[in-house]
Amino acid sequence: MNGLAALLIGVPLLGYVLSSFTRKSQDSWISLGPLDHFPQGETRLAVYRNPVSKPWDGDTAEVPCWVRRIEGDAFQVFAINCTHLGCPVRWFQESRLFMCPCHGGAFYEDGSHASGPPPRGLFEYQHKVESGELKVLGGHLPTLAEPL
Known about the structure:
Oligomer: single chain
Largest sheet: 4 strands, antiparallel
Number of helices: 1
Radius of gyration: 19 Å
Order of helices and strands: HEEEEEEEEEE
């Protein structure tokens, strides 16, 4: 009886532990839209669908990000989450700052830390310009332990 109980508990536990070694990366390049959707010198909100989502994820599979077009084909794409506790930051064009409503964190337009409790600047996604579109490397959400 004890052997059967150990088997029933041990097999799923072993599968969980070994799953991190067998999981394939599902990172992929996802289009955020044509370049003309992002005017030069402005920061805009964009959304892409997480490539690791399932059909039943619904709207939670939509991942927002802030896109800053510096000039020409030079961009910065930021995760929307504050690096303090993950609250969504908002862009304020007038002050040219990202602000976190939860604990007063502030970030400059280049994503660097300006003030408040966040330990670092905003996470920045890998991105590229290809065939007249801005693409972001999706499938990996940033954390302090694993930044982008």
